[in-house]
Specification:
Strand order of the largest sheet: 3-2-1-4-5
Number of strands: 5
Shape: globular
Structural class: alpha/beta
Order of helices and strands: EEHEHHEEHHH
Distance between the termini: 48 Å
Number of helices: 6
Length: 200
Amino acid sequence: MSLKIQFSEYPLECGTDEAGRGCLAGPVVAAAVILPSSFTNDLLNDSKQVSKTNRYELRTIIEEAAICYKVAFVNEARIDKTNILKASIQAMHLAIEGLAPQPEFISVDGNKFIPYNKVPYQTIVKGDSKFLNIAAASILAKTYRDDYMEELHRSFPQYQWNKNKGYPTKAHREAIKTHGITRHHRRSFNLLPKQFRLAL
């Protein structure tokens, strides 16, 4: 089933999505994208359904074809200070704020959003597998965050962030148990199961 370009009839509708919400370490990253109405691509889908090679190929296609796009990062300190939901929405707001032209309508992946500058919006569960503009945002958010975590991996190789990207894999939790945490870990998260809890 091919994805629709966007949800509304507004010419300048942006899709927005985030990556890294469920991670133990690293920022949450959001992207906002306005695609031209003529845009088509059979490969483009929810970033989780697309291979790594295709994600990076799509990133180039999206960036070249988009009317505008923006990627925004919200760091661990902000996540810990507010909570991951608010930090995710803040990242989306920052991405939308960076768009020129500004959108007339916002399509949001998921079921939670805080209004942005009185712009009409729609939250869409699994929106990244229904609309191309949200799928495009998911590809950008995922690839930019993955690049960032690969960069961090060079300084903290023991956590294998080049593989797990900060998600709570067994290897990541074992490394936390053995080496403790870094400044990039989210202290407000359940970093270890109760029996291995660290004093933070």
